[in-house]
């Protein structure tokens, strides 16, 4: 079986490399020429642990990349992995999906093919894709992706479940094809949820909205704990020990970001509203998250008064550890707010590519400092904290706990830490003479 993967971003590239590792012949198709060139040289345009090694292992053997849709002619299964960003009204923008479908259509012939929608798409999209391809010998399958950036390869090979949505559950052909492609998972007892298109599409949105709701829930409790004097880390731990609740996605902080939760929660809200239903809980999830970063900024303001002219080290650019993805990163949001307040910001991230992406985002010059913005992206954490009025933690890097905080204390102008991810050992930091401000643990 030959496979093509359309869109080679975080999802498509992992899918391409993962399927190549299973032994399939895979061609990745992307409209971004620069990306395709890099990939064909064995360079991953994005950072994921182990990805570049696996890419190199299969490149030129059973894996290659192209900008030409003609290649789908030779393939039996086409995975659709293009982006579905947020449009100006918060809906999922399906432009890339439909443009890819039109490109695929131009190269279809009599041969039977399965088109698998991996992109996160609103309910009804798989049906619409099938409608557009009704004159062709194709079946459309909804196969939402649940990988987490930062550990995406690990997630690819160890999924919690495989969700497959079909237009007609009495049609065995696409079901057999999908079972064959994912036989590695079937053999290992991974649960398969075989259902209709609509359920599969909704499962993805519901999963993301539920996880986002857990985060907003604990952040709301943290706001009260901050005032009444509890410690949200202890509260979260105790909550998580209850099997019915579970301990995941219960860390209080400055809110969720990334390429999925913010846009998917918004798109789900729009799906309710367009059908005249008010999504009360999910709307509240989004509101709490939007407010959380301002709530945290106010904490900083309350300590310093006027922020104009203050210098801060912001530790963490990516939306989560071990990725270079800055999309909707809370760290970037906070940097923007601090710059607006007239602050000087010196930032750092452990992932080099995240720093490079920040330099690109702010169009910084080669010296990695853009004086007009008073923003500096530094390659060394200890450089970033030098002479600052406060250190702000924005990404949940466990390495931060192991840093030499005594040395940091000697480098800063004022020993103050705003721990936006509650990652530090509060007592240890205080013993070193720092003033410590976390989220819900004052
Ligand atoms: N990133 C994640 O962690 C994640 C997890 C689960 C689901 N998803 C979903 O998967 C989808 C892809 O996300 P991503 O993060 O990989 O996006 P991305 O932006 O990293 O990659 C999308 C790729 O599609 C390419 N593309 C756009 N239009 C194209 C076209 N017409 N033909 C060929 N290529 C085209 C782009 O050049 C880009 O390389 C989205 O719907 C997203 O919501 C993402």
TrEMBL record:
Swiss-Prot/TrEMBL catalytic activity = UDP-alpha-D-glucose + 2 NAD(+) + H2O = UDP-alpha-D-glucuronate + 2 NADH + 3 H(+)
Query: What GO molecular function annotations does the UniProt record carry, in alphabetical order?
Result: NAD binding; UDP-glucose 6-dehydrogenase activity
Q: Where does NAD(+) bind?
A: 30, 35, 84, 120, 149, 263, 327
What EC number(s) does this enzyme carry? 1.1.1.22
**Record keywords:** NAD, Oxidoreductase
* InterPro entries to which the protein is assigned, alphabetical: 6-PGluconate_DH-like_C_sf (IPR008927), NAD(P)-bd_dom_sf (IPR036291), UDP-Glc/GDP-Man (IPR017476), UDP-Glc/GDP-Man_DH_C (IPR014027), UDP-Glc/GDP-Man_DH_C_sf (IPR036220), UDP-Glc/GDP-Man_DH_dimer (IPR014026), UDP-Glc/GDP-Man_DH_N (IPR001732), UDPglc_DH_bac (IPR028357)
Which Pfam family is one of those matched by this entry?
UDPG_MGDP_dh_C
Q: Which SUPFAM superfamilies match?
A: 6-phosphogluconate dehydrogenase C-terminal domain-like (SSF48179), NAD(P)-binding Rossmann-fold domains (SSF51735), UDP-glucose/GDP-mannose dehydrogenase C-terminal domain (SSF52413)
Could you confirm whether the keyword Translocase appears in this record?
no
Give the family, as the similarity comment puts it. Belongs to the UDP-glucose/GDP-mannose dehydrogenase family.
Which NCBIfam families does UniProt cross-reference here? NDP-sugDHase
Q: What is this protein called?
A: UDP-glucose 6-dehydrogenase
